[in-house]
Amino acid sequence: MAYKQAPKKTQQQRDDLTGEHLISDAGQIVLACLFAAIWIADSFFFEYTTFLNQYVPNGIRLAAGFVLLVLSGYLAKTGLSIVFGEEREQPGVIRKSVFGVVRHPVYLSEILLYLGLLMLSMSLLAGVVWIVAIGFLHYISRYEERLLLKRFGEEYETYMREVPMWLPRLRKK
Hints:
This protein is an all-alpha fold.
């Protein structure tokens, strides 16, 4: 009995989305699993590199961690709902909401998630994975920006000049 195989899905399913690096999702999953495994093992079982906990009061660590985790959740939810929530009829550079503050709010949310967890336990081993994750997210962000520049040209160049990549400006230019 023969059957028709469904056509393979391409990375870009919608015309209003530009695409991402081929290893973006897999890399993020691997780094998230690695971070989680090291953070849990070092924070709750072995405690090899959590000695900084004795120097930073629990109240400060918990408050900072909580704020970072809430901010991370807000950036992720808002950014993902803007990008994937509805299909735009006219493709263009997204500048609204969190995309008017930083160019990569979803990736920034991932960085802040790790940092929030790091604040809770001060695991230096997990901090090493966090630094690797920042490098990886920066790499895939630059790749995606080249795709966006190719697609939107001057419009995206202007956006890059006006909106910072990672750290929000305290005041507008």
